[in-house]
Design goal:
single chain; mainly beta; five-stranded antiparallel β-sheet
């Protein structure tokens, strides 16, 4: 290694045993390189839903997340300001079953089995399965269908799920407009609508009651990479707290004609513990019984009335004072002190 030349030569060296160059008896194990999946963006869907079991926080929304491949636990970070520091709001451990419809779904009467044309849906990951009618009546196979916005969802259930192509299913024998969503059911959900299976993969977000209706900012991505990762998806959403929304009234009827005394009556519904058949009357679910009633002619609101009972008397003198002449509609919605009016139900009064 080193030599000093003088009166005496000084040498420095390192001795190497020859045995170090002989092949050993045990060969080194060579492991294959571990496959690393590149991060891909997640697909989050926010759902402002009615109470599903009654154990949820009424005003808080849900989030469903899908990704292929699944990146492991997904973090949902939130902030009141777009550029402020984000805080972890919720961890999503498993992917949700999210898809799109490939056929339209026409409106159907709630409370009866919808035996119409099967709804064809294409899902990303996961499986669907059939269930007995009794299981469906007990809550199985619940699914939300909507336009993708956070607050416009109909909840329905299905008994039959038939695989017709890869990741494509036909859903038939349905229960429509569940949990009071019959009040927002359109004449038709078009092909391309979003569907989400309502199972344990959904997570309810942490949202203060004071933040209801306020715009908040969310970032969704692999938890291990943080909220500023390259594949993080940003969303800005405001939630009304649909779990507080009253159900639409039912059995709305009116007798009489325009220009005469008109009597209207309806039956109240409840969003809390309304399935117990041992009760003589369903719980109110609100601070007080109250209804908002509108006298409608086309899209014009002629008058509004507040009622504290499930009936309304509209004499001819009141009609004249409201400027009502000819056929009109009576629209009724139950009121909530925290939410306001629920969906309106309408009945026509002829001339």
């Amino acid at each position: 290694d080193r030599v000093e030349t003088g009166d005496v030569a000084l040498l420095e060296a390192v001795r190497v045993e020859t045995g170090a160059y002989r092949p050993g008896d045990i060969a080194e194990e060579i492991r294959p390189a571990r496959r690393i999946a590149a991060p891909v963006p997640c697909h989050p869907v926010f759902l402002d839903l009615p109470l599903l079991t009654g154990n949820e926080i009424a005003h808080a929304p849900h989030v469903a997340v899908a990704a292929d491949p699944w990146p492991g636990p997904v973090g949902v970070w939130s902030s009141a300001e777009a550029e402020a520091r984000f805080e972890l709001n919720r961890m999503v451990a498993a992917p949700a079953v999210i898809g799109v419809t490939e056929s339209p779904l026409a409106a159907a009467r709630p409370g009866l089995w919808d035996r119409g044309v099967p709804l064809r849906v294409r899902i990303a990951g996961g499986q669907l399965s059939s269930a007995a009618m009794t299981s469906v009546l007990n809550g199985a196979n619940a699914m939300a269908i909507g336009d993708g916005s956070s607050g416009n969802w109909e909840v329905f259930q299905f008994a039959n799920a038939e695989l017709v192509a890869p990741d494509t299913w036909d859903l038939s024998l349905r229960l429509r407009g569940q949990l009071g969503t019959d009040g927002i059911m359109p004449a038709e959900w078009p092909a391309g609508s979003t569907v989400v299976l309502l199972d344990r993969a959904l997570q309810q977000l942490d949202l203060a009651a004071s933040a209801r209706g306020l715009l908040r900012h969310y970032r969704i991505g692999a938890a291990a990479r943080g909220y500023d990762g390259a594949a993080v998806v940003a969303r800005s959403e405001a939630f009304d707290g649909i779990g507080l929304r009253p159900y639409p009234v039912c059995h709305l009827r009116a007798s009489g004609k325009s220009g005469q005394t008109v009597r209207a009556g309806w039956v109240r519904r409840t969003r809390i513990e309304g399935d117990n058949w041992q009760q003589t009357e369903v719980p109110l679910g609100e601070e007080a019984e109250a209804y908002l009633l509108r006298i409608m002619q086309g899209a014009a609101i002629r008058a509004e009335y507040h009622q504290t009972a499930a009936s309304f008397l509209y004499p001819s003198a009141a009609q004249a004072a409201d400027g009502v002449a000819g056929p009109f509609d009576i629209a009724v919605a139950q009121l909530s002190a925290r939410f306001g009016p629920g969906p309106f139900r309408r009945v026509s009064v002829g001339a």
